[in-house]
Amino acid sequence: MQTLTAGQVAPDFMLPDQHNQMVTLSTLLQAGKVLVYFYPKAMTPGCTVQACGLRDSLEQLTALGVSVIGISTDAPARLAKFVERDQLNFTLLGDEDHQVAERFGVWGSKKFMGKVYDGLHRLSFLINQDGTINHVFDDFKTKDHHQVVLAYLQKQ
Q1: Which residues are catalytic?
Q2: What is the DSSP letter of 145?
Q3: Which residues are CB-contacts of 136 (< 8 A; sequence separation ≥ 6)?
Q4: 79-116 pLDDT, tens digit each
């Protein structure tokens, strides 16, 4: 797994959102910086805590010129349930074949309860409007993710 780093250009992508509408990174970047966060599975405890923290911080993030996009390997129908259940106020994208995750370097070997398997690693990328990666968030707890991102943005 070769994760992208700050200074590299983020690969453009096109993925379906929770309404099964196609979304591209290049279109999102026209409005400003984008926080692309990868999470393993919709509606699981850790992913829910992380998403709700971002939901509750979205007004602050928007004020700092940042939009939020969540990416998992879930199908759009499951993403729609997640958005509805937890009243999420940002877009979720489904990378069912994990091609985008592989391009960002967040798909790879994981270990859980003694089992080794391939899966999505929980990382976030702050992407500048020009498409370069500003920062990679790879050291946080799900409940603190939004605070780590806000603290970084407020220092800039």
Answers
A1: 47
A2: H
A3: 3, 4, 5, 6, 123, 124, 125, 126
A4: 999 999 999 999 999 999 999 999 999 999 888 788 88
